Amino acid sequence: MKKITSLFLFMVLACHASARTVDVAASYVGASHFDQARIGATMALTLNTLVGFQAQTSHEHVFKDPVYSVAVPVTLDLDIVRINVRPFYYFKNKSHEAAYQDASAFGVHGQLRMTLLDDTVNDVYTYAFITAAAARQKGTVFFDARPDENRYYSQAAYMVGMSHAMYNAFQLELAGTVFQYPDGISGVKGVRSILDQQSLANLQTLDIVHQLPRYAVGARLTRMWLENGSSLYVGYRYGEFYNVEDEYSVMAGNSFPLGKGMAMDIAYNHVRTVHNRNKRDIVYVQLTASF
To answer: Which domain covers residue 29, as residue numbers?
Structure first.
């Protein structure tokens, strides 16, 4: 993680000299089964082009060594159309059990957002977005009726959604996601993988998701106070999985300014399976700065 942090700081300093603005974020996510630290920076290279660098380390109880990953998001804003491409890479995580091979993953996430309504007189805005993502992961696949296999395993995710903002005060977002497994899902009871499914799609949770989703539907409502840059938000998600019980996720958060160019975002997330056999409580804190 020291090498990643050094690279991150070098990119921020190098790009700040030529970029119009630089936004830097550092966050912590914690629960009883994991701790995660994230850092990121976004540079506005032109009026409509953003380039970023993100890195994170996760200490999960199911892996002996930390899981490291990086991503490089690029955003092109063309007024009524906004395109975001985010390649990501999970560094090799050594297996300490002879039966399992080392795990790694890579992939790309892309989103197209279109403006459907832009009423500046009444402050009413509507956006639709389409997301597609694919990943290939190296790990161990567990089957119901045949021996486990050390192999590559591919998957994809497709999301459609809509966001509606009114009067510079309220924003409602609805989204649905389906997952595809080109290497087959029949008879698969699990994958020993370091890939977080949220690299493929936002599952409206702060949790790290290694299970194999079938689909997810969710909503988020935000109350905004643009005059002072603060907001309150609540989110809900229901997801069905191939290899574990279906689950609910409820999240609430608050973002607010700390001073000139600085802001904080704090959130709480409760996740539970439909039969209440598995419950998780997760907290999130993020500090951002612009310069």
So the answer is: 2-290
